[in-house]
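Ops channel
N.P.: pipeline sanity check, posting one input/output pair.
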């Protein structure tokens, strides 16, 4: 499979863009465990144009994480085109447009999935970004605004006509947010549309190696994208990739090996930010990780782990955890 001139293996597995999750240290960790492509956090075009320091920091990418996509969002063509040019200066492999974020502060202001209610403007923005840069442009979106407006089959063709090089589809509507099960039926319909020439990336509820294989086999997608299942569990890419390539499950990592991975993530987060902010950032992963689920009488330890304020304190708690 190829996106523009970027070649991928038979079963590409991508790390989905996630706000407050896919910063450089986490992207590098997922890359280490086999993610074929990674995406930055969401980048507001308005904040980028205003040179907001925290937003500019999101443009930081490393050669070791390539191929990497910078994802931008906004609600007007000209600012999006300007932001795309700024993103291009960071030399990403791909510039991705976010037409899928469902949260109120984005979609409610007419950006992200909010543009599923204004398809002409979505297409205008897409054309403006494609025309503004030489870097390949891709799009990530959803099935539609709600159950009565699942427009993705026709929309996919329209976006392709704008010049994008690949399309990622989350199998939910904006109204669903992240509730219920992802519906891959329409993703498969888009992929099997003979008029579609660009790669189709499926997203939504890829949580196990078996489900990833099923989505490749049943819906014919060119790649799958893993999002929330990677939070606190970057080794999910190792497990999925091994299963896809070998037809059997990988030898599981031990509990102690996984604890060391979590600790390395903490350290990387601290190195990227600083001790206080790094620990605050990684708490989301500590809270979500499946590693500690099912341990009897774990509540007090979990609370202490999420309240730890120094690396030494946090590592001492993690080291003390036993199955």
């Amino acid at each position: 499979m190829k996106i523009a001139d970027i070649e991928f293996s038979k079963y590409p597995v991508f790390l989905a863009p996630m706000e407050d999750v896919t910063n450089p240290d986490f992207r590098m960790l997922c890359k280490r465990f086999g993610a074929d492509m990674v995406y930055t956090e969401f980048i507001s075009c308005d904040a980028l144009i205003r040179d907001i320091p925290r937003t500019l920091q999101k443009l930081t990418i490393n050669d070791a994480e390539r191929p990497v996509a910078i994802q931008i969002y906004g609600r007007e063509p000209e600012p999006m085109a300007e932001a795309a040019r700024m993103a291009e200066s960071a030399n990403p492999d791909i510039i991705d447009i976010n037409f899928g974020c469902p949260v109120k502060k984005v979609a409610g202001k007419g950006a992200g999935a909010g543009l599923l209610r204004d398809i002409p403007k979505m297409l205008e923005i897409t054309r403006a970004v494609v025309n503004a840069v030489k870097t390949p442009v891709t799009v990530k979106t959803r099935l539609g605004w709600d159950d009565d407006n699942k427009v993705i089959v026709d929309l996919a063709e329209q976006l392709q006509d704008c010049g994008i090089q690949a399309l990622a589809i989350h199998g939910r509507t904006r109204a669903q947010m992240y509730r219920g099960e992802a519906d891959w039926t329409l993703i498969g319909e888009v992929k099997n549309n003979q008029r579609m020439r660009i790669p189709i990336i499926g997203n939504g509820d890829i949580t196990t190696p078996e489900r990833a294989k099923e989505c490749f086999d049943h819906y014919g997608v060119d790649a799958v994208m893993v999002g929330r299942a990677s939070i606190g569990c970057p080794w999910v890419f190792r497990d999925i990739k091994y299963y896809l390539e070998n037809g059997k499950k990988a030898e599981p990592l031990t509990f102690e090996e996984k604890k060391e991975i979590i600790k390395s993530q903490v350290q990387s987060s601290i190195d990227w930010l600083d001790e206080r902010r790094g620990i605050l950032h990684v708490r989301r992963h500590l809270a979500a990780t499946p590693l500690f689920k099912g341990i009897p009488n774990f509540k007090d330890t979990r609370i202490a782990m999420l309240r730890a304020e120094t690396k030494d304190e946090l590592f001492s708690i993690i080291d003390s955890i036993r199955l």
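N.P.: looks fine end to end. The first helix runs from residue 24 to 32.
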